[in-house]
Queue: 2 jobs
Job 1
Amino acid sequence: MSEGAAKKEEKPRKFQAIRGTRDLLPPETALWNRVEQTAHEVFETFGFGQIRPPIFEQTELFARAVGGETDIVSKEMYTFTNPTSLAAMVREGRTEGMLSDTLLSEAEMISLRPEATASVCRAFIEHNMQQLPQPVKLYYMGPMFRRERPQKGRYRQFYQIGAEVLEVVRREAAEHDWEKEVRKDAAIDAEVIEMLMTFFAKLELAGTTLYINSIGHSGPDCRSVYMGKLYNELLKIKGKLGADSQRRIATNPLRILDSKLESEQSYIEKLPRITDYLCTGCAAHYAALKRQLEMRGVIYRENWRLVRGLDYYMRTTFEITAQGLGSQNAVCGGGRYDGLVELLGGPPTKGIGFAIGEDRLILSLQESGKAPVQQGRDVYIAWMGERAQATAIRAAKDLRKAGFSVELPPVEQKFGKALGHADKLGAKYALILGDNEVSEGLWTLKTLANGSQAKFTEPDLLEHLKKHL
RNA sequence: GUGGGAGUAGCUCAGCUGGUAGAGCGUCGGUCUGUGGCACCGAAUGUCGCGGGUUCAAUCCCCGUCUCCCACCCCA
């Protein structure tokens, strides 16, 4: 925003949150905390440990993991030169005669993370986690950054809760009995999905639907066969497709499958389906996954048009939609990504993971009326007089120590006013401390809901509250 | 990044074809100097998103810009 020339006296400029970012405030933050607390609890019951990777990494990590050609990497990342790297170049005298363009291209670039799977894989490698008991099960939660046009359920700083299961490939085991390996992988996939559904169920998220698919693997006898077939069929119906889809025939034919354009639907429905072209291994894996989900009582729907946008996915892909989200109705997406760790310089490793859009999850909970109401205080202390203040301070300390939420007004107020304030704050009880109470040693406790009140000695009061709150 | 809609008090909004702003809710105070929710009375708060233009005069018309919302692209 350009500030006009300094004319007359100017008020200090008002700041506002940067586009696509926002403040999360009470009482909404209580819901965020509940969601995150539930995630901690549920994920830990499945044996997952929390990882907290940094919020920025070398740009190259994301470029390699997510795919340099993807929209996320090519135009949606917050990328900047690492100032430390520039400084080092200067110190080492390497900048002699360099044009500024060269200088920038030589300097290390870093990016705010657009997702966290790449970081988790990097950490797996960096900390030699292949030496831990396998598989390694990690979860994370925190902000991600993508420079997209904001809309409902999509922000430039948004929050994800995700989990990854990584397992280093034991060559002997794989060669000994590949079918067993496939069954094991499918069971892990299913358990990850089961964990998700357990989490959503615990939150009472309304109208969730789980969609699954298999997109095969990149070998010559699997997805590439399908891609050739799909490409031929797409050429035949090219004239019927919209401009976007026509362009994608060359750039990313798979993406045409999840086009939302009404006029294309009848043609897309007739296109070949990847599940008919899976190789033996991928087909066995997909069949085993469905069996595993059924054994776990997880309801799913197959969606052959579900393809994931990130380069690293193979075999299992899945997505969960929920109510009340407008066009951004996916609350969670995930899939298998064997080979990604190796691509990042680690040992051959299998992986499966998901990311939940926490903003969307919260939105859906709010839309379905699951949001908690304003958090009130347990006890409001209405006090009058100097002696009473000392008592009030002591009472507040003891009540808080016992775990109650206490509001202690900083100045004395008439009791009428104090009770009014207590009411507005949603307090359950008012502890009334005036001259009478202090001299008698009997404190008055008023139940705001029905107006009843009674006198208690200091220890009795604590007992009473513990019993009734 | 593309297209459409909208920005007026803390919130939700009104403001007739241009004459520099109002309601409800909320907040605060009073009726009510040891007892809240109700009621009544009263008060504060707006550079009418920001900048420029047209005009004697702009919240209203025009242009630009920022932000939000909706959809596309893409994704969580």
Job 2
Amino acid sequence: MSQKEVRVRFAPSPTGPLHIGGVRTALYNYLFAKKHNGSMVLRIEDTDQNRFVQGAEDYVLESLNWCGIEFDEGVHKGGPYGPYKQSERKELYKGYAEKLIESGDAYYAFDTTEELESLRKKLETKKAANTSYSSFCRMEMVNSLTLNDQEVQLKIDSGVPYVIRFKMPENKEVRFTDIIRGDVVVNTSTLDDKVLFKSDGMPTYHLANIVDDYLMKISHVIRGEEWLPSLPLHVLLYKAFGWENKMPQFAHMPLTLKPDGKGKLSKRDGDRLGFPVFPLEWKNPQSGEMSSGFRESGYFPEAFINILAFLGWNPGTEQEIFSMDELIQAFSLERVGKAGSRFDPEKAKWYNHQYLIKKSNEELTQLYQPILKEKDIVCSDEYVSSIVGLIKERANFVTDFWEQSFFFFEAPVEYDAKMIKKGWKENTTEILNAFLSKSEGLEKYTFNNLEIAVKSVLEEKETGMGQLMMPLRLVLVGSGKGPGVIEIMELLGKEEVNNRIRTGISNIKI
RNA sequence: GUCGGGUUCGUCUAAAUGGAUUAGGACAUCACCCUUUCACGGUGAAAACAGGAGUUCAAUUCUCCUACCCGAUACCA
């Protein structure tokens, strides 16, 4: 690897919300840059004004910010190679396109949409090896290769729309090395004369991308595998511009697939798959349709990043929980796999659980309090913290807390029928009453004292633990779930426990 | 169709440079233990080298073929 400074870029187009595959691309770029003390650039590729979506750019920024992925330069903060939005660089590209015309690597083309369509149909019915605008048919089309200079100039001067196409060399082998894929060879005869400059005055992705990467001194292009097929064109463009020795190194990442393995994850999948595909909630400005986000679903950004990092990469050790700093330390493109990976929602939950149980009760309390507030429940941090300590092991998300702990804040209004059938016997009322009087007599309502009370009731009544604990849980919680009964009683306090026992006794009938 | 990429348990994946592995781990599944609840946790079980040729003393690892999957084939990125 060369000694030159590492500079990478993340270059989304603002055509909608960033999905998890996009976030992963940004993440890998970030990890690589940080690992090599390099810089990370955020460039907005908005060369297609038809597909522009309001709010998409802010969404990208907010998402990456939530993930903890930071940029050194970019649209939002400027930098020495700005502007970082391609629409603001519009004037720049035409000159580069014309340069290629002068050098004979590109040409003007005046063909209309209809002409192009009939060409395609013709080639398809002929079952031609190459069904696109290429060296095989370019001499039959209306372009500056078939027209003389005056004719071309006349058309341009009179305002006839034109595009600039790359003149793909014939039957030449293009070789390149991809950090992830290794050596790839493609024959130019299978490639077409891609449009570099559109009739609306904007460059296409291919031109803008190469020009900007060169101008912004990008050293490594890390992007999705869907770009691999156009890499030969890009390599040829670097050569045509005479920038071959400045060409970045390429790494094409495997795609993120849907859980069923059919196709790459795309923005249109929304919530259909039963889990978010977006980092943040997204409201489609056109349809008003909402798509859920990982953030709103209760994922911690650290967990989200960890999950994404492991989709297609792994450190080669058995460690699975990595902080961002640890990821930076351990990351390398060489350990990125070649095959696409499916997103597994189940494992994602597990990751979140790992981060959840690592957090302190105090921190979780601060996250839980707003949820309680929404339910008009006001409790001290101390009380909530004790509850959190009791339930966090059994939750994947903070949003799971309520159903794990509602009974600490309100008495049960229903009793699980199955549990009644299982645990409520003829003598249950008698046993509960016995415990009730012990409970009423307790001065200090502590775990130890409660345990003693329980034991003495069991001795007096000559009965088993289950005869008391099951009904007790039922009247306190309403179901057969939750932390230990004694822990619950200790937190609930004497008065509340006694009340619940009384209402339970009068409400539960066999 | 054409071109390119890919293929280890259901899923994510590990196993320097071909050589011993019961092909390892994690998630999910199942069983048992713990807990007289539900989870968590612990122990264990089941579970994979796509198929076929070849090279080699030896192939999951190299080559070729087939199958399947993915991507690209736009004046979209």
